[in-house]
Amino acid sequence: GQQLNQSPQSMFIQEGEDVSMNCTSSSIFNTWLWYKQDPGEGPVLLIALYKAGELTSNGRLTAQFGITRKDSFLNISASIPSDVGIYFCAGPDYGQNFVFGPGTRLSVLP
Amino acid sequence: ETGVTQSPTHLIKTRGQQVTLRCSSQSGHNTVSWYQQALGQGPQFIFQYYREEENGRGNFPPRFSGLQFPNYSSELNVNALELDDSALYLCASSPNFREQFFGPGTRLTVL
User: Fold this and answer.
1) B interface mutation test: which of A29, A96, A99 has the most B CBs within 10 A?
2) Of all helices (H) and strands (E), which one includes residue A46?
3) Is A98 in contact with B55 (Cβ distance < 8 A)?
4) Is A82 helix (H, G, I), strand (E, B) or coil?
């Protein structure tokens, strides 16, 4: 099946800083989803992308569907303590079934 | 609008036992997928149900089985539990085969 890689694996930032993370795949995707997961809870959908080059925002979050269709990027501006969590990218494997990346763990220092 | 709900929240079983986990889809969603999430990893796809039929399956053995009911709620059954089955089990419903919306999960511990 398709594999997703996320970088960085983890990051520590100061409150107020901007954050960038990315996700790459071994093959072309036609959909990218970005999720955030808090400890002990299910992932929450942040942004969905459907077209190469698409740039979509959700508040302080902005995600882009890479031109090559093999990557996607998530940016968080002016980070706050509640941004702490694990961010996952996901895309369709076969049919409508989704494969998830290993996640980027974000820690925000006050 | 009620989101995806799962029960129970936590469960402890012993090796060899059987377990049933339950999921209620978000209103208007006719597709349900189940995922297994081990500690420190991303969710791994188990299977998907659409209109009460299995619509895709990941790399999990047959002792993982499921059902979807006419009201689109779903069950995940696991037989002959093994220690490695300890994980967070997530249910996700979808209205359109694109976005998936997750429930809070069931934490299963196998001793």
Assistant:
1) A96
2) strand A44-49
3) no
4) helix
Phi/psi of residue B51, nearest 5 degrees:
50, 50
Q: Which residues of chain B have pLDDT under 70?
A: 1
Would you call A94 exposed, middle or buried from its count of C-beta atoms within 10 A (0-12, 13-18, 19+)? Answer: exposed
- The residue assigned the tokens 């996607």 is A72
Inter-chain CB proximity A97 and B58 less than 8 Å: yes
Which residues, at least 6 apart from A12, have a Cβ–Cβ distance to it below 8 Å?
A107, A109
d(CA A100, CA B35): 10
> Which phi and psi angles does A106 have, rounded to 5°?
-110, 130
Q: Which two tokens stand for residue B33?
A: 């997928």
| Closest of B42, B48, B83 to residue A95, by C-alpha | B48
Lowest mean pLDDT among A38-42, A47-51, A53-57, B77-81: A38-42
